[in-house]
Amino acid sequence: MGYEISVLRRTASSLAVGVALLLGMGMATQAQKEKNAGKTEQKMERSALKTHQRGERVALKSDQREEREAFKQSRRSRHKPGKVWEHDKWPKRHPKYDHSARKRCVKGCNEAHKNAVRACRGKRGADRRACERAANEAHRTCQATCPR
Q1: Is 66 left (phi over 0), alpha (psi -120 to 50) or beta?
Q2: How far apart are CA 142 and CA 111, in angstroms?
Q3: Helix 126-145 and helix 99-120: axis angle, to 10°?
Q4: Could you read off the pLDDT of 16-64 as tens digits, one per residue?
Q5: How many whole angstroms separate alpha carbon 112 and alpha carbon 146?
Q6: Is 33 within a domain?
Q7: What is the tally of structural domains in the chain?
Q8: What is the pTM of this model?
Q9: Which range of residues forms the domain containing residue 134?
Q10: What angle do CA 142, 143, 147 make, to 5 degrees?
């Protein structure tokens, strides 16, 4: 009989500890929910404030735009000589000229030349000099064929 009472006591105490833990967690989660709700409200207030400020900035920019347009239309700015930019003075290239195509071609030629020179490194003496001359000549002709 004493054994049964001790088992009942242990069961009751473990049950009490479990209930206390569950209640504690429930209160903690409730507090966490309240805290999160407060944060959500703060975020909403901040986003509303940002939206309001953004509206003010847009209004300010439109006012500035109107002032700028008014200045451009003024007599003083109409008679002001326009500035000539440096790049307007440069000779214009043909519209079909593709600079990136030339860069790609030259890059390919350089890579092929490096590989050819590496292949010549295994040779010695006059044989190596002849190989390097051939690689240099091939490199010159390759670059000459790239679009200009």
Answers
A1: alpha
A2: 11
A3: 170
A4: 777 777 777 766 666 666 667 677 777 777 777 677 666 666 666 777 7
A5: 14
A6: no
A7: 1
A8: 0.37
A9: 111-148
A10: 110
